[in-house]
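Troubleshooting log. The previous structure file for this entry was overwritten by mistake, so regenerating from the original sequence record. Sequence copied from the archived sheet and checked twice against the printout by T.R.
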Amino acid sequence: MNLKTQGFILLDVDVVALNNAGKSTTSNFDNAVATKKIFKNGRGYTYVSGQAWRYWWRETLKLNHAWALSPITRDKKIAFTEANPFAYADDDVFGYMKAAKDVKRDEDGNAILDKKGKEETEDVTVTRVSPLKNSVIISVGSTSTVENWSSMARQEGDSVPYSKEEYSAIMKGMFSIDLFQVGTFSTFNKTGFKNLTEKAKKESANFNATEINDPFVKEKNGEPKKMIQLPQDTRIQRVTETIKALKTISGGAMQTNNMADVTPKFIVLASMSTGNHPFSHIAKSEGMKNSEKVILNIEGIKEVLNDYKDQFQDTIFIGKRSGFMDEYNEELKALETEYTNVKVLSVNQAIDQYCEQVKTQMS
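Regenerated output below.
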């Protein structure tokens, strides 16, 4: 079964500027930086781009889980990684696109020449849809930012003023990991599916990769197409480390003066047989603009548990940090009684126990 990890998180941040949007067009200061925000139904919401969240995630995996990140090559107006998912786990989990040409070679490794004596080339473009998909991280309720005026005044002469936008918010984000796709690669000549060149395919044996049948795509004769898959323990390690990185994830702009804890204060982790993410509305805001309160939608959680009961596989883990939304402690614990497949724990316990479950689901 092609299972997917579906995750939902809530952050709780105060006086931050997590993701900036460049020069402010509304400030009276020349050196003014705006934060990223978007508008819906006439209200403004601050957010962290999905790309920024992925950057935090990669850096955390490098620093705390010893991932060697794939080297980046810059060529004029494009940049690409090594596109080697065997050697670099981030190429595997985060996906890649590399458009390139290479010299054609014979079986002995010698360059093949054309009639004019020039080396022939071949297209070795590869692309991989990321098994890890994530939303932006956006404030649950509308957010009023504050322009904080500062100045550089340690030098002789006049001070140099500058400003930045700061805010406090409870923010939500979603992510999904295709458990089968991690460590599994195809060579179909189709954008997003041609993960490997023929050269990389030949070298896959050096990483103990094996050939498997594609469970979905078949040849014209009805036979399944072939895929290349890394060993099970390598695939499990990459998935579980990706999820465990959320326990220590850090990042955000203006950290010198606006450092914030961006680890989840609330998390839901579940394995599902569908790609649909059902948890997007289990947190919401109530009240008038500028006086909104973020609430946990307990009835919404129950609705999801009931509506998708046939798609959930094994236990659904809910984690909450003590001190965050403690008014929902009893209602959350009551879910364990009402639903036999729900466990309510601390955030880190929920992550650890879900990762233990994933090990069995990927076996």
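The mean pLDDT is 90. Archived copy saved in two places this time.
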